[in-house]
């Protein structure tokens, strides 16, 4: 990705201009993969937990168990179930749209499990 508003000629005040590298710019906040807040960085949190374990911390203090023993994100919420009226009944068979399900099963050419004379 390039920015057309950047002048590619080196500025005489930058050290890169001394060695002949044109267009060198410092990194900005969005140009790095490092999380500015270390508490939000999962790798840093894992590193801190490992360091705490090495120093003798109780593992239950670092990673407390949930009441179910499962990840809290996996515990279903009360509103996560599909309403009963939205569940399609399993015993209805094919979607016949008002036609005889046996005929629908045969198809247009009558090439199903039943012969047309079996109807």
UniProtKB/TrEMBL annotation:
Compositional bias (Acidic residues): 106-119
Renumbered residue ranges of the record's region Disordered: 1-119
Compositionally biased spans, kind Low complexity: 7-18
Name recorded for this polypeptide: Sugar ABC transporter ATPase
Organism: Microbacterium testaceum (strain StLB037)
């Amino acid at each position: 990705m390039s920015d057309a508003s950047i002048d590619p000629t080196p500025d005489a005040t930058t050290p890169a201009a001394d060695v002949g590298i044109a267009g060198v710019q410092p990194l900005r906040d969005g140009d790095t993969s490092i999380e500015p807040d270390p508490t939000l960085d999962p790798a840093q949190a894992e590193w801190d937990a490992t360091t705490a374990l090495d120093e003798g911390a109780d593992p239950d203090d670092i990673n407390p168990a949930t009441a179910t023993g499962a990840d809290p994100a996996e515990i279903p919420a009360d509103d996560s179930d599909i309403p009963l009226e939205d569940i399609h009944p399993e015993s209805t068979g094919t979607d016949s749209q008002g036609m005889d399900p046996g005929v629908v099963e045969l198809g247009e050419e009558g090439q199903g499990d039943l012969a047309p004379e079996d109807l």
